[in-house]
Amino acid sequence: MEDYTKFKLKRKEELDAVLADKNDLFVVACNKCFKELDSFDEPECGLFEEIAKEQGKNIVGSAQIDFLCNEPLTSKAFQDLIPQDAKNVFVISCGLGIQTMAGLLDIPVYAGSDTVTVDGYHGMALTTTLCEACGQCYLNMTGGICPVVDCSKSLLNGQCGGAKNGKCEVDKEMDCGWQLIYDRLEKQGRLQELLDKPVELRDYTKVNHKFVSEYVKSVREERYEGYYGGIHPTEFKELSEHIGLVAFPDPVNVVIPMSQHAGAPAEPIVKVGDQVKMGQKIAQAAGVVSSAIHASVSGTVVAVEPRRHPVSGLDSLAIVIQSDGKNTLDESVKPAGDIDSLSADEIIEIVREKGIVGMGGAGFPTAVKLKSPKPIELVLLNACECEPILTADHRVLLEYADEVIYGLKAMMKASGAPKGVIAIEDNKLDAVELMQAKTADIENIEIVVAKTKYPQGAEKMLIKRVMGKQVPSGGLPMDVGAIVCNVSTAKAVSDAIQLGMPLIERVVTVSGNRMNKPGNYLVKIGTSVKDIVNHCGDVKGDDVTVKIGGPMMGFAQADLNVPMLKCSNGIIAVETIVKEAVECIKCGRCMDVCPMELRPLYFTKFALEENWEGMKAQNTMDCIECGCCEYICSSKIPIVERIKIGKTAIREGK
Amino acid sequence: MLITQLKSQEAIEALAQGKTVIINCHGCKEVYFAEHEADAFQKELSANKEVTQIITTDYICNPDNLKLQLKKHTDVINAADTILVFSCGVGIQTVAALFEGKKVYSCCDTYPLPGFQGVTPLNVDCGQCGECYLNGTGGICPITACSKSLINGQCGGAKEGKCEVDKNMECGWERIYRKLEKLDKLDNMKYDAPKVRNYNNPNAE
Amino acid sequence: MRITELFERGEFVLTAEVGPPKGVELDHLIKDAHEYLKTRVHALNVTDNQSSVMRTGSLATCRVLKDEGLLPIFQVTCRDRNRIALQSDILSAALLGIENLLLLTGDYTTLGDHPQAKPVFDLDSVSLIHAVKRLEEGFDIAGNAVDGAPPKFAKGAVVSPCSDSVDVQLAKMEAKVKAGCEYFQTQGVYEPEKFIKFMEQAKQFGVPVQLGLIIPKNVGMCRYMNANVAGVHVPDEMIAELQADKEKTKAGDTGVEICARLIRECKDYAQGVHIMSLGWENRIPEILDLAGIAPITPVV
């Protein structure tokens, strides 16, 4: 792979001169970008230190940093890195890195390297095609060959007299750009266009400081808004956001897996042949971090056996109930009281008993979350629904606003939190307006409008934006006094208290570019995904991928004969994208978008090498698997897959 | 790094002749490719012209990846008279090279933003002059911080510390002077020998 | 004649500025020069596409003035030509008998009437002064020897004493002197205290400085300069002065008075005066009279 890095160590004579009157040096080297990932030992740092030592200089310390020009991350990295006795800092990097360091430090910063002249700007992939970014693209008149880049003189009106044998007079290895243009236009039968075109004059005001600086400012603001990193994928929410919630037709039978939550799978307490009623407990929690499960229909238990699980793709224990079509309610389904009359512990007990788990996708048992061992100052509801395509939570906000607020109040009482916040992304302004009106008179509940940026809905990103706090590495929201829950979970808590209804039904968005009839449905847990997809007109085309969840973190299904779980928030059909991974080119984009401020490029490398120590050192366990890195990767590497391999190995103590 | 803006509607409409295939590159959407604008415009175009396919993919500047993504559209592309590309200059040239016999047109103008890699442009830029001046200027690049890229000090055009070319821009040499003052290195401004640029690629071996 | 000789023999050197037209009819310019300037100023600056507005070349106009028996100063900016063309034009100047230069970086292209042009700035004022000095030593800046006897010039440059970054300007002035600059003409001064303070610092360089003056024609012009022109500041009292008597200002008399007063207040601290009349060449004699500066014997 060619090396497109941008800098070379200055010549020894020049370095000797610059070093002459300086001592107590700290050396910073940038791990080069746009080159092979393999070699970490950049020779420049060592070479420089040798030269300095030759002169008898005292080197106080050194550091090797990735993407030195990434100002927010570099600024963090250098907070306490440079010792007090350092008097001068030498930086080995391209001009961007040196200037970034000079801007951050108060002591003098010197350049140990020169930036190599590179013509034009190469694209996001490694390519020899260049673009001079002139702001007045001439490619339409030249059949797609750039006269600014491919002609040494950047002529716009045809060949000069210097070409010899089709080669440029400036560089005999280079083809004459205008010869290439002529040949291309001839091939397309467009030579007359060339002869007829008016005289071209370049406008050098197109690219000016005002234009560039305004753009830079707006991009940087949007990029660092709320929290570091994140991406803006196309949303496609217009496919279903206006479609009201509809109850999905009752299923003929339901397959209810015992593992629908974080922690130990539930244990069945019914057997084949038992008659069950809707809302009746059919499996009990197996330990503290576990959850009870209830029947979503009334009927007969026809099987308690392994069935295909939508997340693992493997078979795991499930209870299968044949519905009798009557939806007879169990006696346990009755109102428990109201928030004022119930104590905090009583509320938590109801939440536990009614099998409520996080409905945003993680499925963490809510009762365990509410009974926090640390003091809680805020219950934060995630109403962002930051995954593209999904609109179910949006509909919950619009159609069950009162229940959501009730659930929030209950959670605040249960956890002792004095404040509650509902965070809504600004792509749902109708929901914002409604919720603001509904909470106007409630002093301790606030609506926070967050700028839309994926993954805003992730708990750590929410905490960053709403509370301005960073959850410590390896920590949990309770470490900063917060509990984060999904809005559907809040509604479920409300139903549990006000109706006595356990979690047996949930909202789901069925959508995507390849789903024939998108919609938002209330679906019974255990309903077959295949039935739901059929009901929505099935998928269009052959190259379709169906996922449960959203496009970023959802699970692709090879077989649609799987059931809906408590935490399944979407069924989407999207075009299958065929990708071929190539070597990492150290472009730095993954580090630019990782909301947890990690270095995904190392994950890919270490996973392949089975370097689990390395992965641990890179804080792989902090990764929230949001998929931003994979989305932006110019080499199309399946980064999340590799992260998961690493995490599994680390958990297994390897 | 690169960023794009759509050409004018009239200009693009004039290019869409006969059966037209549109290729959108969203590999750079993080750099504010005018996605919604392009989308709305393309819908309009589809209503008035013969748009046979709109293909959206990413990193079309990567020729191997591009070939892979365009495989399933071979028939439509072969039958097309015109291919309109919404991407930066690199992407369009790549597509044009792939379909040398076809009329491939650019629907965007490309502009530069400071920064080499990653998606976020920087507040500092590097002029890639190959003869780094940063040691004498306290770490502020005179090539990029000065509109005229002067290397021997301020011109007479600065007013209230702002550049004569753009009043929103600070005079680069004023910034350098103040930084050197802060570092107590004003001696750097003392004249030794006049600095003159070497435009003939000083790094050529 | 090189004007450095005048400075050397202690003369208070007077110069004015003329701008070539955007065309090839110079009659008006020559007539004004003869009538108002020949016996009042020692030499005439000829501007080089001033404010980035394309006009007939300074070099050719200088030659025309020389043929008319006047002493031209060839202004050269770095905006439009690279080092090859600049050195070439310097040699051309010597060939045409032009011995006085004013070497500037130049305004940016966007300020003028061809804003889309490509700005050059291959050299700047400092490196241009250096290039001229090298030619005088018999070499171009690539190190090649000049054929025959090398040229010799009076090398001048500009400085802005009333700039809001006057310390930065002083640093640049020092660099210019070290590169070989032999005299300075300042940007338009309206604040004598600032000029005097500046000269206290500048005199250490031991190089003559001419007080630069721009005739304040009216209030609008002053406000425009305050907002847009670097290194120029017309104080409020002076604007008030212009406003006070509208008829007098319209007749140009207030502006003339102000210039004369500025000369009187500053001349003890300067080695000469450079008047930028912006088309009011006919008022220059009056200004000098009011300032108590007698007519001169033309040097050519």
TrEMBL record, chain B:
Residues 120-192 form the Methylene-tetrahydrofolate reductase C-terminal-like domain. InterPro entries: DUF5981. Pfam families: DUF5981. PANTHER family: 5,10-METHYLENETETRAHYDROFOLATE REDUCTASE, METHYLENE-TETRAHYDROFOLATE REDUCTASE C-TERMINAL DOMAIN-CONTAINING PROTEIN. This is 5,10-methylene tetrahydromethanopterin reductase. It comes from Acetobacterium wieringae.
From TrEMBL, chain C:
The keyword Glycoprotein does not apply. Its cofactor is FAD. GO terms for molecular function: FAD binding; methylenetetrahydrofolate reductase (NADH) activity; methyltransferase activity. The keyword Signal does not apply. It comes from the Bacteria. One of its GO terms (biological process) is methionine biosynthetic process. It catalyses: (6S)-5-methyl-5,6,7,8-tetrahydrofolate + NAD(+) = (6R)-5,10-methylene-5,6,7,8-tetrahydrofolate + NADH + H(+). One of its GO terms (cellular component) is cytosol. Keywords: FAD, Flavoprotein, Methyltransferase, Oxidoreductase, Transferase. Pathway: One-carbon metabolism; tetrahydrofolate interconversion. Belongs to the methylenetetrahydrofolate reductase family. This is Methylenetetrahydrofolate reductase. It comes from Acetobacterium wieringae. The lineage of its organism: Bacteria, Bacillati, Bacillota, Clostridia, Eubacteriales. The gene is yitJ.
